[in-house]
UniProtKB/TrEMBL annotation:
Keywords from the named record: Cell membrane, Membrane, Transmembrane, Transmembrane helix, Transport
Subcellular localization, as worded in the UniProt entry: Cell membrane
UniProt xrefs under CDD domains: TM_PBP2
Topology of this chain in the membrane: Multi-pass membrane protein
Lineage: Bacteria, Pseudomonadati, Pseudomonadota, Alphaproteobacteria, Rhodobacterales
Statement: the UniProt record of this protein carries the keyword Magnesium: no
Species assigned in the record: Thioclava nitratireducens
InterPro entries the UniProt entry points to: Bact_Polyamine_Transport, MetI-like, MetI-like_sf
Listed name of the protein: ABC transporter permease
Length: 281
């Protein structure tokens, strides 16, 4: 196919892809500004921020009860934070171990990757049955936490493995040959160089755990996380306050991306200035 014919096809394909990707979010954002008497569908009865006020408890009276997001939001944030710390630590240590060839590395690699490939519903159901068999109570901070780590750990591991594969080992060897201890070498040489990978692994782990649903459904116990609480409201009736909450959650995710971008930009600027200083010296 000639270039002049291929170009409009690619433009149309890209436009349809972007529309499919962001169209639902745009519709959700528009419907979140529905008036008090409006429902979760078009047409818009009245443009207002009533459902945002309702979500924050600022609306005086309402025919709709508030979303149970307070305690469940805290649980999801704490669970995502715990999962991020453990997954990134394990992922970094495992990737560090894989820098050296050892017996059984192949099977262990695929066992780690298996955690992100097994269907979440099956794993969650299996852990729930095992907990009942062993008479272990299910809770978001115990059984769900373990499953979240099993799920996010492979992502952190793959990110760190890619970083270590590009790592120049001679830098560490130079530090060790100068008499610097392995712990200080990791803190002052290795960690600053792998910091972008650590940051990416943290972003992956946090976002995956924050909105994880299927693995949490059977293992969270009585205290629900945020995705389960939102899902519980769907079984009654959907109101635009759910859309308003979706918009705020999306803004929260974008905020995380902005923080990630600023940290990466700062790290890149510091690396460039340090490299320039070494060249001048």
């Amino acid at each position: 196919m000639e270039v002049r014919l291929l170009r409009p096809v690619l433009v149309l394909y890209t436009a349809l892809f972007l529309l499919f990707l962001y169209g639902p979010m745009i519709i959700l954002a528009i419907l979140s500004f529905q008036g008090e008497g409006g429902g979760p569908q078009f047409p818009i009865q009245e443009w207002s921020i009533y459902w945002y006020k309702h979500l924050l408890g600022l609306a005086e009276t309402s025919r709709v009860s508030q979303l149970p997001v307070g305690a469940s939001l805290v649980r999801s944030l704490v669970l995502a934070f715990m999962t991020t710390v453990v997954s990134v630590t394990l992922g970094t240590m495992s990737a560090e171990a894989f820098r050296t060839r050892f017996k059984g590395a192949g099977p262990i690699f695929y066992l780690i990757i298996l955690g992100m490939m097994v269907p979440g519903v099956l794993v969650g159901l299996g852990v729930a049955l095992l907990s009942n068999f062993l008479d272990i109570g299910r809770a978001w901070w115990s059984t769900s936490f373990v499953l979240h780590v099993v799920y996010t750990f492979p992502f952190a591991f793959l990110v760190m493995l890619a970083i270590f594969n590009r790592f120049d080992r001679s830098v560490e060897e130079a530090s060790l040959s100068l008499g610097v201890s392995p712990a200080q070498t990791f803190r002052r040489v290795t960690f600053p160089l792998i910091f972008p990978g650590v940051l990416s692994a943290m972003l992956f782990s946090f976002t995956l755990s924050y909105d994880e649903f299927s693995r949490t459904l059977f293992t969270a116990g009585a205290d629900l996380t945020l995705p389960l609480s939102i899902y519980g409201t769907f079984s009654v009736e959907i109101y635009p306050n759910v859309f308003a909450f979706g918009v705020l959650t999306t803004l929260f995710s974008f905020t995380l991306l902005v923080i990630y971008g600023l940290l990466m930009k700062r790290f890149t600027a510091r690396s460039k200035s340090r490299f320039a200083g070494q060249e001048e010296a």
